[in-house]
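hi! just following up on the protien thing from before. the input was this:
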Amino acid sequence: MTRLPRWADLVLVPLISLLLAGIISALVILALGQSPSEALKTMVIGAVGSPYAWGYTLYYATSFIFTGLAVTVAFHASLFNIGGEGQAQLGGLGVALVCLSVPWPHWTLALPAATIGAAAFGAAWAAIPAYLQAKRGSHIVITTIMFNYIGAALIIYMLVNVLRPPGQMDPATARFPEGTKLPTLHEIPGLSLIFDKQVPANVTLFVALAACWLVWLLLWRTRLGYEIRAFGKSEKAAIYAGISPVRITMIAMLISGALAGLMSINNVMGESERLLQNSAEGAGFIGIAVALMGRNHPVGVFLAAILFGFLFQGGAELGLWTSIPIELRTVVQGLVILFTGALDHMVRMLLGLFFRPRPLGVA
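and the predicted 3d structure came back as:
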């Protein structure tokens, strides 16, 4: 297969994949007897048509940045971490325990502590599949999927039997102290001029942006990052160079789990202000698509997270203002995953016909 120019691989292939997913989605909408143009208009206005809409899109995108980065780090070590959903839920447990254990006087003190708790619990939940892969040869895909369900069951047990306040019926923790409340974008000086209404997007967005920079720094500017990428490219060559497979597998998965756990500071601490069932809301699985769409690079992950935030919020608006079911956003997300993942090779083959090198002497 013809090797594509770097710009085509990074920009053209994802754009064509997205276009193909959009065409198929339009056909699905037509089959439902609705207008694709009206559906697109509703999605655009509802997701990016106002600062208020952007507030929701950025809120969803923040969670997807964390889970996308989690998949990215593992992927560079040739590990496919499918357990972001469970790691994010356990991260939420870490956030809840930190926020409820101390009467925090201000969010500037609570946020660093909650960040550590979320990362620690997410990393701990990823450590078990990592150990099974590194020491026992268990496939990381199978074990991380299984741990999603184990994590969900553990969270339900904790909410029902341990953390639920006396007399409360719904399985959830008590509300966090007032000092843990994170400021939303409309409460931040300067941004309050843009976001003049209450929105769920909060200061966690800036933590996510910092995480993008730190992951880039780790993977492309540190010795550890070089070892992770070398191991992912060729395990045999990495071993020959003195790189320990057990060490890299454990470290990469611990970092991946920590990043997945960090998404819980956005929705558990920032939006719900208590731990609920299914707090991850599918963001762990969407992170896989975000990483694929973003070519496993922090900049690409950021852009892909914005796209999926648009799809998530725009899909909600479709369900609210049209007769198109809200589940259509799941269909669109699935199509994007299909074309950016399973059919990525097909798109590359088609583009290879246009980028085929010309014979010598041909103008």
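Residues 159 and 171 are 5 Å apart (CA to CA).
The radius of gyration is 21 Å.
cheers
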